[in-house]
Amino acid sequence: MTRPLLDGTEAVLFDAYGTLFDVHAAVQRHAAAVGPDAGRLSEVWRSKQLEYSWVRGLAGRYRSFWSLTEEALDYALAQHPGVDRALRGPLLDAYRELDAYPEVPGVLAALRARGLRTGIFSNGDPAMLERAVSAAGLAAHLDAVLSVEAAGTFKVHPDTYAGAVAQMGASTDRVLFCSSNRWDVAGAAAFGLRCAWINRRGLPDEYADLPPAAVLADLNGLSQPTA
Predict the structure, then answer these.
(1) What is the pLDDT of residues 52-68, one digit of tens each?
(2) Which of the listed residues 5, 57, 164, 173 has the most CB atoms within 10 Å of its CB?
(3) Where are the beta strands (DSSP E) in the chain?
(4) Beta-carbon-side half-sphere exposure of residue 23 (alpha carbons within 13 Å)
(5) Contact 186/54 with Cβ under 8 angstroms?
(6) Total structural domains within the chain
(7) What are the catalytic residues?
């Protein structure tokens, strides 16, 4: 038997960066100016951004995700000395207004049309998320934009997921969490959330002991049945 992934769901929470917003769009906009290191620069920027959040979270040294984003870009630029450092400002400006993936507005609208509450739950700090949502024109499709800032730490700490669920006004078993980051799905599953892994890059699975309820190529798969 198969059943719709959204059966019994009252609210759907989405990670922001990599799930709704393309984290590589900032460098892509300036790829010609960045030069041949554009792809690698973007990958290092993203990997260090996440690494810095894990280290600060584990060390109990919370800082805004935006400050970690700046710090990560500085490291990426230092690792690629051939890239003009004058691009730092334009790259950060572009990151504030990342492109949403093409299917995002339609999927969010469809979920709300079905009577489901929708929200973002992200490591991003509130000002960062507000600007990203506004630039992408998603505000009308969201009931909540939630940041880990209230918990004073980063994902995958259980307190972050607990706070998000409480703010959505639904019990844990009635919330579906969607993320493109497998580590985020693992953290949410450990907390007790039902999860969809949005595996946009076709990556191999990991964290076998903390599986998602579904693996989807993009958000359009939310309307498809799952085993």
Answers:
(1) 999 999 999 999 999 99
(2) 164
(3) 3-4, 11-14, 117-122, 144-147, 175-179, 194-198, 214-216, 225-226
(4) 23
(5) no
(6) 2
(7) 15
